[in-house]
Structure formats: structure tokens, C-alpha cells
Amino acid sequence: MIDLAISRQQIDEIDSQIVELFEKRMEVANEVAKYKLETGKAVFDREREEEKLAKLSSMSHGAFNERAVRELFSQIISISRKYQYGVLSHSDDVTAFRRVERIPVTDETKVYYFGVPGTHTQQAMEDVFGTGIQGVSCSSFQGVMEAVEQGKAQYGVLPIENSSTGGITANYDLLLNYKNAIVGQYVMKIDQCLLALPGASEEEIRTVFSHPQGLMQCRGYLEKHPQMEQIEYGSTAAAAKKVAEDQNPAQAAIASRRAAREYGLNVLADSIQQEKNNCTRFILIGQQEIYTPESNKLALCIELPHQSGSLYRILSNFLYNDLNMTQIESRPIPGRNWEYRFFVDVEGNLDDASVQNALRGIREEAAFLRVLGNFQA
Fold first, then answer.
1. Which of 40, 53, 245, 246 is most deeply buried (CB count within 10 A of its CB)?
2. Using an 8 Å Cβ cutoff, are 300 and 371 in contact?
3. Coil, helix or strand for 347?
4. Distance between CA 144 and CA 368 in Å, rounded?
5. Helical (H) or strand (E) element with 253
6. Among candidates 149, 131, 77, 124, which has minimal Cα distance to 320?
């Protein structure tokens, strides 16, 4: 029978040799980095790495070991590359973003928000900019984006994610279709209410209008009232406006208390959302690519080479620069079946060396990279 203690001792000795050899390899990698600095040679050489991995894996015995050796050295080469990004000095700008002391807001500032008056997005806008701001309602997400890009407004406010229903995917896609940048975010607790005409009762309601997100957030309540037909509408506040205009006591809307006040409706049921700590994250978009010293979150869009392990190699740039990734959302790339782009949020400021190193690595290794914003969370 094999003596386990002896086997473990042998493994310990082998592991010590591996560590010693790894450190020797990293010393050589430092010399390689110096050479690349002097000659201006790029850190990432895909052809060289593929040749190296093919040669190393062919030296192993058996299909399992061949795959394992390739994976092992893929990691070692990736670590070496991250190290080289860190030790090389760079004169190029990682992004076109410009640092400012604060996000500019004046008495003339105009802000477009999604939805009709009374919507949650209007409330978020006023919480951020104040009630004296020139707020303009807009019926579509795209309209808000266009108004900012065309200079009709300095900023726009859009919902991007809900804590119970996830990302609002249409706005992720729109971020790439316009040149706007994310300059801020705001998280607001959302209490959804059932609103109806004065005098109407909960038992009378047969039709409920709301934005798809509002309906999803209240699915538990609606399941308990199967007699209520659910109809999707442009926004929660627009649904409340429709109920007020139709004057039909059998109709109701899922919207906010603010919308009830705005359109003269009664609250039949309060806080009917599934998650009682239901929150929505809103993004503030602007035409200028700017950030402040207080900016502590980056929003990125990354497209990957269509090959095995590419997602890990890209995300490892955050790992080796000690950056905390707070969100990742995948979206299909139009016209390219089964290929995806990733929307990623990480903590950091564009002035941080670790952020700059990570972005340089991703820029070299990704098929596409765009920094969507650096803002204060």
C-alpha cells in the first residue's frame, strides 16, 4: 500500500521546485519587459503564445495531460503578461476621458428623463439635480439618448438595472449606439402601488397597466389576483395617466405614489412589489467624456475573440490589478449568432495605475473595448 505521508512529502518537494522555477521565469519576464520598453514592441503577441502553447502541450503524454499543460501554461503566460503591463511605462492615453473637478451643472442645465411626469425616473432626476432643474419628459429610452447626443440637453436619466428583475437590456444596447458617456448613477428604493380612480375598489379591477418591469416586480401580487389582466405600457407613470384619462373604474395601474398624486388616483394597495427592498439603479448620461476625482466605478463594454478561455483571460486583468468587479451582463452581438459582448462594472478611477494597466491589457487582448463611463457610485 502507498504511504500517503511519503507521497505528500514528494508533492511538497515538487511544488517547492515549481515555485522556484516560476520565480526564475518571472525574472526573465522582467528582462523581456525591459526589451519591449526599449524597442516599443507590444506586450501581447498572440502568434508567439499559440506556438509556445502548442509546443509545450505536445511535450506531455496523454490527452488529459496535454489539455492540462496547455491550460497551466496559458495561466503562467497570462500572469507574465499582466506583470509586463505593470512594469512598462506608457505615454499613451488609455482613454479620451477628461478629468474635471465636478460634473458641471448651472441654472441653464437641461435634463431629459424617461417617461411622463410622475415616473420614478423623474423622481431620480430631482433627487440628483434638485427640483429646480429644467426637466423634460421623453417617451422613449432612445429619445433621451438622442437629446443628449444632439445637445438638446446636457444630461439624461435612464433606468439601467433593478435589484429584483435584473438589467434593462434595451439601455445596455443603446449605450453603444450613441457617443454619450455615463457620468453618474443613482440608486433609489422603488415602492410599487396599485392605483385606480377615486371610489374604485381592489375587487373591481379587471385590467392592470404598467411598464413590463413594474409588472415583473409585482408578479407575486398579480398571481394572487388572477382576475386582473396584465397589459404592458410605456412607463408606470404613463399607465397611471391612461387610467386617469379613461375614467374606467375596472382599470388600474402599477406605479408610484407620486404618480397617484400627479393624476388624481387613489392607492388601493401599497408596496406590492415582490422584493420589499426593491431598488432601481439609474444612470446619468452626458455628452462629454468626463470623470471627477471622486469617480470610483468604471462601466466597460468588451467584445471577446471567439475562442476558448478568452473571457477568463480578459477578466484576469482585473484580478492581477486587484480590481473588484461588481457586475457583468452579456448581450448578443447583432448579426453574429452566438457571439456576445459583455457590459462590466469595476471599482476604480481612471487616474489609478491599476485601472490604467488593466485597460491596457484588455485593449490589447479584446476584440473591442469601450469605456462607457467613470463615475461616482
1. 53
2. yes
3. strand
4. 25
5. strand 251-255
6. 77
DSSP string over 107-151: TT-EEEEEBSTT-HHHHHHHHHH-TTSEEEEESSHHHHHHHHHTT
CA atoms of 323 and 5, how far apart (whole Å): 39
Which residues, at least 6 apart from 228, have a Cβ–Cβ distance to it below 8 Å?
205, 206, 207, 208, 222, 252
Which of the residues are catalytic?
280, 282
Amino acid code (one letter) for 166 = G
Neighbours of 101 (CB within 10 A): 8
Coil, strand, or helix at residue 212?
helix
Distance separating alpha carbons of residues 244 and 266, to the nearest angstrom = 10
State how far the Cα of 238 lies from the Cα of 106, in Å rounded to an integer.
Answer: 29
List, in sequence order, every residue forming a beta bridge with 342; answer none if it has no partner: 302, 330
CA distance linking residue 63 with residue 77, whole number of Å: 21
Q: Read off the pTM.
A: 0.79
